[in-house]
Amino acid sequence: MVLNPTELITSDKNTTVKLVKALLAQARQRKKNGQTVIEGVHLIDAALRSDYPFVQIILSESARSHPEVQQILTRLPTYTPILILSNSLYESIRSLGTGIDIMAIINVPTPNLSMIDEDCLVLNDVQDSGNVGTLLRTAAAVGIRNILCTSATAQAWSPKTLRAGMGAQFALTIYEGLSTQDILDHVKVPLLATSSHTDTLIYDHNLSAPVAWIMGHEGQGVSDELMQCATPIALPQPNGQESLNVAIAGSLCLYETLRQRQYC
């Protein structure tokens, strides 16, 4: 590891700078390269705590002497390349506001889907990155490790989802780009899906054994194909609201599952 690189990058024509700009802005580029960018001290710290490897560290000239950055640099594996950008160049490519100017390129993991016989969370075309990140963060908090995402779900490793997840991704095994059939073929625990068309309240359903909670599209809900194979579960809404935000609904389901098992 080079803690004191001598070259200062000032040109936006630099190959790494161009790559970072593309990865931050374009889902297609992230998918093509199999890489993404994490920004800020918190996410980089989360990756370090999970021993997640970095492709490259990028920081601004002024951040180089920041105490938190110095601490991060001393924790990096010795082979990690570091690139120093001029302050103005860094500011021109970052997607975060004012803060500690450090980011990293990482490879997006692509685990092979095997049979799932334990608790899992299925994201069925959840399209908002904030909702996906919140659901990932909640899953990690309650101890659910496996996340299965159908093909129209927002990218779990996009910069926006990573920020919403606060680094929860590093504690999870996330399968992306799945078909409905992939889920039906590989998930071997009962499927549960929230629905307003059932009298079975979540508080009356036994959640003591492993289950797969399905959270659906913000507008259309869970697909018909998955719903036909799932047990519908209702979240009570005594004041008559039409529905809950999917991230809120998912969090309630996951925490009721936890409550039944550990806090009854």
Describe what you observe in this structure.
The protein is an alpha/beta fold. The protein has two domains: 8-107, Ribosomal protein L30/S12 (60s Ribosomal Protein L30, Chain: A); 120-262, 3-Layer(aba) Sandwich (Alpha/beta knot), CATH 3.40.1280. The chain has ten helices and eleven strands. A six-stranded parallel sheet has the order 8-7-6-10-9-11. α4 links the parallel β3 (56-60) and β4. α6 (129-142) packs parallel to α7. The protein is elongated and about 65 Å long. The model has no long low-confidence stretch (mean pLDDT 93). Pfam families: MRM3-like_sub_bind, SpoU_methylase.
> Residue ranges: pLDDT <50 for 5 or more in a row?
none
SSE pattern? EHHEHEHEHEEHEHEHEEHEH
Globular, elongated, flat, extended or rod-shaped: what is the shape?
Answer: elongated
How many angstroms separate the termini?
50 Å
Biggest β-sheet: count, sense, barrel?
Answer: 6 strands, parallel
The CATH homologous superfamily of the largest domain corresponds to SPOUT methyltransferase, trefoil knot domain
Q: Work out the radius of gyration.
A: 21 Å
Q: What fold name goes in the CATH topology slot of the largest domain?
A: Alpha/beta knot
Beta-strand residue fraction? 15-25%
Query: How is the largest sheet built, in terms of strand order?
Result: 8-7-6-10-9-11
Domain tRNA/rRNA methyltransferase SpoU type: 121-255
GO biological process, one term: RNA processing
Keywords: Methyltransferase, Transferase
Protein name: RNA methyltransferase
